[in-house]
Amino acid sequence: FFPLQKKRRAATARRQHLKSAMLQLAVTEIEKEAAAKEVEKQNYLAEHCPPLSLPGSMQELQELCKKLHAKIESVDEERYDTEVKLQKTNKELEDLSQKLFDLRGKFKRPPLRRVRMSADAMLRALLGSKHKVCMDLRANLKQVKKEDTEKEKDLRDVGDWRKNIEEKSGMEGRKKMFEAGE
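Request: output the structure for the sequence above.
Response:
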């Protein structure tokens, strides 16, 4: 019993030691990446953004402003172009993934919920404030009176089915049915 417990303790201790060693390695790697990013950022800024030297005269200052505005416009145009390209590629990617999904033939139905909603509420949800017509469907129905037909009267008058059978039995019943048909 004791050797098994000793093995478990050793395994958990080893696991804890490995975990802490991995965490220490991860921390040093993250610090190295942050330092590398900072160096890369400094190099990029030094290359693309020369230090600003302010001229003394008003004329030179206006020319510098014009140059800066031109650079800002060109950067904005590039940003806009890249955004448009990104949107186009995203749209193409969605279309291609939809085509791929359609070619596979596996259609996933979205989970639908049952919603109890009147026709008025549905039109209001679809059309918004444009909806002014009241769709009370029951109000437009005709009132229909139930007329008593001859068959229904006959069925009510029959009453007991045994009497009806006895009257129609034999030759007399057939004679009555024949006379009623004429």
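DSSP finds six helices and no strands in the chain.
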